[in-house]
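Possible race condition, two jobs.
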Amino acid sequence: MKDFTSTILVNLLQRVVGEVDPDLVSGQQRSDPFAGGIASAEFKRGLVDKVMAKHGPGLLLSVGQYLHLAEETPVATVFRQSADPQVLATKWLRLERYHHASHRTRIEPLEMEGWACHRYSLGSEPILGENCLIAGLLVGLVEMIGVEDCRLQIGESDFAAANLRDAVLLPQESLVQFRVLWSQPRGRQISAEATELAHPDADLARRLAELLGSDVGRSWRIDDAATLLAMSRRSLQRHLADNGRSFSTTLRQARMREATELLTRTAAPLSEIGYCCGYADQSHFQRDFHRVTNITPKRFREMSGAKATGANRVALGRQNWR
């Protein structure tokens, strides 16, 4: 199977390199994250090799500090909506699977605040430059959701996020294993109290819909929702059933609302929309959308007449980012 990577990742890397060393990407056609969701991993590896050869690992490790350059993309908004680092990690792993990446990351929570990360491959081994890029991105994403004192631990060395550009690795370092560490998160936390405050008289179905809609890109499970709504799984199921509803139906409705919004108001590619709506793969998104609307997402976009321009899609992304 051909190896792919996220167009957003390639576009971000090109933009960062373009700011630091324009000659290195001179003449390259910039990957457009709104033209397609996946790009050739071979192209990404070629650019990574060029950066490593000229700038060493520091520039790749610091790419996560430039995430503001990708703020117009719906995927960036999905990551930023993560309530905590564990939710963020789940989204990252789903993104790797969604785009059938051959090089992936195993993320395990530590007893202290942090992750133990291990890079592995379904084919050829990941190269040092790619591992530097992913490690730096994970640090930047954790910072983005409001976590303080974020740092990267490589072997016995700790690098603060702001100092990654100057990081120097030992000659034998492959960065197959690393740790992302932080202090207590200060990011947004979703809670039952928050939904009740917004609508003190709202029924349970409304509160559940608001909860799911607050981060539709999350891989929601009924147990997660029940915990945040301060009730047991069985109680939530019973309350929904008494009103002729189910968790799966409520989740599908939230996903469909987000999908139709992205299809009509942005130029995001279909593959990114499926990911942003919480689906495990593109075929699942296509089936679900057709089941609900009786047409494909592509046909829905054509019928809606949505032709988001570069200007309004960026404006929308920045509005969502705030």
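Job #2 (started ~2 s after job #1):
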Amino acid sequence: MSSICIAGGVTFDSIVSMNEFPDKRGQTVFSSGYHETIGGTGSGKALAASRLFDSTILHYMAGDDRDGEFIKGYLSSNGIKLLTDVDPAGTEKHINLMNAHGERISIYVKYGTFEPVFNHQPIVDACKKSDYIVLNIINYTRYLIPEIKKLNKEIWCDIHDYDLDNPYHNDYIQAADYIFMSSDALDDYRSLMTGFIENGKKLVVCTHAKQGSTLLTKETGFIDLGICDNFKRVDTNGAGDNFMIGFMYAWSKGRSPEICQKYATIAAGLCISSKEIIHTDLSIDLLEDAFLSNTFIK
């Protein structure tokens, strides 16, 4: 049995597709597609985990509103145990502009409360019972770190498109045992990864969108891996979250870091072949079958 507790990161998203992003002038543009759905890094991870782990718990904050009700129904229908607090600011909302190249511009149109008052204990209790703990970089989750550290539990963090000049991530970086990130805002990601390992992190993974990913542990050194070449890109929302959960699934089965990286890449590939933030048919069997049949671009 494998169990995971995830904290933070649920939104209601409007997805606008277009062939190219508009240039820098006032204009009228026409979309090639539009839909509304659940979003957020916590949702993506929890939905993927609900298909790959025996038990998934998600804590999030959302408004007592229509969007919040939609999110609750969507997540609970996927078998996720929900721990929720009401955000007085309402449910966070994003507009994601997606172009034909898989690039995204996210517009935050409604924000969650930055420093909400909430009861830590149900989340701490859930962490105590869980094999794996994921803290998303939603500001309220940083206040859980001291209590989780007292449990002597390892913490997994996704710091996304980390910017060296932004101190926002520092608490998460310091607390994490395992770090996932993107190279989007980094000129020298390898030096940063090396520094993380030298400072005691057990594993660091950096993703590079269509260029694959790089893994580093003290034992393995750097491992570069390309993408799977047989997934048709539909929508890249949720790819990073599925990558991380695919990795953690394989890790929970005792697989080597290099093999876990391959599972992660396949999970991300399955995700981008769907317009939702997980592949509709994601399951252990689907992931395992895809692992046996996929090739990687070096």
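The CA atoms of residues 15 and 96 lie 5 Å apart.
Logs attached separately.
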